[in-house]
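// run 5 | inverse folding | seed 20
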C-alpha cells in the first residue's frame, strides 16, 4: 500500500491490533553488530538489522492493482483471525 513502517512502528501497530502492550527496548545497533561479529554471525545480523522495503509500483502499474485495504486494516483483520483461532 506504499507504507514503509520501521520495525518499531510495525511492532507497535501489531501490538495495537492484538490489544497487547508494546514492549520495545532500545539497544545500540552498533553493539548488536559487534556481538554478531564476535560470534561469527555478521551476515545474519546484517539481514536482521537492515531495512526491508518492497516496491509495489510495478505490480500496481502493470496489473492495475490496488491493495484491498491499508496496512492497518490488514493487521486488524489478521489479529482478529488469529485471536479467534487461538481461543479454540
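// decoded
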Amino acid at each position: 500500500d506504499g507504507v514503509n513502517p520501521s520495525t518499531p512502528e510495525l511492532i507497535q501497530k501489531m501490538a495495537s491490533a492484538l490489544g497487547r502492550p508494546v514492549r520495545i527496548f532500545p539497544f545500540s545497533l552498533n553493539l548488536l553488530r559487534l556481538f554478531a561479529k564476535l560470534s561469527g554471525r555478521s551476515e545474519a545480523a546484517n539481514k536482521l538489522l537492515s531495512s526491508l522495503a518492497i516496491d509495489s509500483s510495478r505490480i500496481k502499474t502493470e496489473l492495475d492493482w490496488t491493495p484491498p485495504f491499508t496496512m492497518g486494516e490488514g493487521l486488524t483483520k489478521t489479529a482478529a483471525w488469529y485471536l479467534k483461532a487461538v481461543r479454540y
